[in-house]
Amino acid sequence: MPASDLSRAALSTVRVWLVGGGKMGGALLTGWLDNGVAPDNVTIIDPAPGRVPQGVRLAADPAAPLAEGPAPDVLVLAVKPQIMDDVLPAYRSLGDGTTVALSVAAGRLIAGFEAALGAGTPVVRSIPNTPAAVHRGMTVACANAHVTETARATCDALLGAVGDIAWVDDEALIDAVTAVSGSGPAYVFWLTECMARAGVEAGLPEALAARIARATVSGAGALMDQAEEDPATLRRNVTSPNGTTAAALDELMNDRAGLGPLMTRAVAAAARRSRELAG
Ligand SMILES: NC(=O)C1=CN([C@@H]2O[C@H](COP(=O)(O)OP(=O)(O)OC[C@H]3O[C@@H](n4cnc5c(N)ncnc54)[C@H](O)[C@@H]3O)[C@@H](O)[C@H]2O)C=CC1
Ligand SMILES: O=C(O)[C@@H]1CCC=N1
């Protein structure tokens, strides 16, 4: 069976509880339903959710789903890291069994989920990103020793339903992953805003500057996606010797004051914050 059929098969019967149906949880949910998860196998637990697709069960808190059952195969934890400690105890009865706790929360450690839900609980810690909303997400995940091969395949299919997925064995890498791909879309949007503002400062009308900045960033992203060349080659393809791009890159690629050292500082700051969120 091809991998995509395998994923669909894994998803067609999976029972998921989504704790936190906000931006990230909602984006994941859309991908699941598009990839074969049955709406009546999904429960959103959220006192103020975003969109609730037809056929999906909604509960403001876990009391009713826990009483009614059946227990989920996967408990997806998509609330803010800062409230995770308050949210988890209610799900203790699902711990130490076959239900996999699949977190998308920044910073929160596998050990924290084990402490709250039970030491024998299968836990997957992952970091997706918001391009998941258009099925172009990038997720990196890490599993504890209690996650079986089947459970890992199910989580792989759930996370892979909204884009690309990579697994790491070393949980410590997740902080840097969060800083690059988790937060990264915001850097690209800020780059777009900066390009538009610079265009206005160079004399363009605001609407035209915003339009060409947005089209350029998304067009460059699409080219990078489809081209075989690496980003450095694509950059060189734009850069004529002694031309306009070379003049700009002299500033952007400056060893001390260019985008390189700035990005290093930004990513280090995000990774540091991820470590702090561990609590
Ligand atoms: N937004 C992003 O780019 C990314 C977010 N994440 C992680 O995803 C998680 C959710 O973030 P967002 O979706 O951006 O936030 P959000 O604020 O859009 O969604 C959080 C949801 O949790 C709900 N909620 C609040 N208290 C609750 C409770 N006691 N039980 C159940 N639900 C409750 C809220 O009503 C809301 O719908 C965070 O842990 C964040 O670190 C991870 C990667 C990227
Ligand atoms: O800013 C945050 O903390 C979350 C995690 C990665 C993207 N958004």
Task: Outline the secondary-structure elements.
Elements: H1 3-12, E1 16-19, H2 23-34, E2 42-45, E3 57-59, H3 63-68, E4 74-77, H4 84-87, E5 100-103, H5 110-117, E6 123-127, E7 137-143, H6 149-160, E8 163-167, H7 173-182, H8 184-201, H9 206-226, H10 231-238, H11 244-252, H12 259-276
Parallel strand pairs: 1-2, 1-4, 2-3, 4-5, 5-6, 7-8
Antiparallel strand pairs: 6-7
Helix pairs in contact: 1-6, 7-12, 8-9
(2S)-3,4-dihydro-2H-pyrrole-2-carboxylic acid (A1CAB) is lined by residues 106, 178, 182-183.
Binding site for NADP(+): 78-81
Enzyme class: oxidoreductase
Keywords: Amino-acid biosynthesis, Cytoplasm, NADP, Oxidoreductase, Proline biosynthesis
Low-confidence stretches: none
Structural class: alpha/beta
CATH superfamily membership of the largest domain: NAD(P)-binding Rossmann-like Domain
Computed CA radius of gyration, to the nearest angstrom: 21 Å
What fold name stands as the CATH topology of the largest domain? Answer: Rossmann fold
CATH class descriptor of the largest domain: Alpha Beta
Count up the helices.
12
Mean pLDDT: 95
Q: Name the hetero compounds present.
A: 1,4-dihydronicotinamide adenine dinucleotide, (2S)-3,4-dihydro-2H-pyrrole-2-carboxylic acid
Strand order of the biggest β-sheet: 3-2-1-4-5-6-7-8
Which shape, going by the Cα principal axes?
Answer: elongated
Order of helices and strands: HEHEEHEHEHEEHEHHHHHH
Strand content: 5-15%
> Termini distance?
43 Å
Q: Write down the domain tally.
A: 2
